[in-house]
Structure formats: C-alpha cells, structure tokens
Amino acid sequence: MADEVTVTVADVPERSRYEATIGGELAGFAAYRDHEGARVFTHTKVLDAFEGHGVGSALARGALDDVRAAGGRIAPLCPFIAGYIRRHGEYADLIDRPLLDQLSS
C-alpha cells in the first residue's frame, strides 16, 4: 500500500459507528452510542492491514468534525478518541464534561 492514501470517513448510523474506508474497503471504525443528546465514543479500531497510514487520525478527525457540524457534543470513553482530543485541543470544546464524568465513574 502506498504511503499516500485517501481515507473516507462516513457515519453509518445503522451500525452506530463512523467507518473509515480506503478505496471502498473498510479500514477502521469508531463505535458510538448516543446518550442524553451526546455522542459517546466507546471503541476505535483500525484494521491491521491499514495501521500506520493515518487511518486512526483521519477517522477521529472526520467523526469529530461531523459532530461539530451537527452542533453536537461528545463523551470520549474510547482512549483513542480521548487521546486524539488531548493532542488536538481544538476539539476539547465538544466534550460534555459532566456527562463524561458521570459515565466514567
């Protein structure tokens, strides 16, 4: 696989996840559940064949941008999404801290 790949990220509500695809092939996903008006990210997975090609970052960015565009808020229970937000502080305002605290306890 080439180092330069185009990752497409789309919300797939019937599966409660954002899916990252490359050339139409599933490369990874970020699972969520909606709770009290917020999108709760529970698990992110990049398929082994696609690791190291920026799929996880593209997936997190695409999912968070989608939530922002919808005027939503999030609770990042998933360590990958939480870590992405720590590294990219421009997404910190999306976090519903009271809900995150409630779900984390």
Quick structural gist:
The protein is an alpha+beta fold.
How would you describe the overall organization of this protein?
The protein has a single domain (8-104), classed as 3-Layer(aba) Sandwich (Aminopeptidase). The chain starts with 7 loop residues before the first strand and ends with a helix. By secondary structure, it is of the alpha+beta class. 30% of the residues lie in helices and 32% in strands. It is globular and about 40 Å long. The model has no long low-confidence stretch (mean pLDDT 94).
Domain count: 1
Distance between the termini: 42 Å
Reported by name, the CATH topology is Aminopeptidase
CATH superfamily (homologous) name: Gcn5-related N-acetyltransferase (GNAT)
Main sheet makeup: 5 strands, mixed
The average pLDDT value, as a whole number, equals 94
Biggest β-sheet: strands ordered side by side in the sheet: 1-2-3-4-5
Tally of helical segments? 3
Radius of gyration: 13 Å
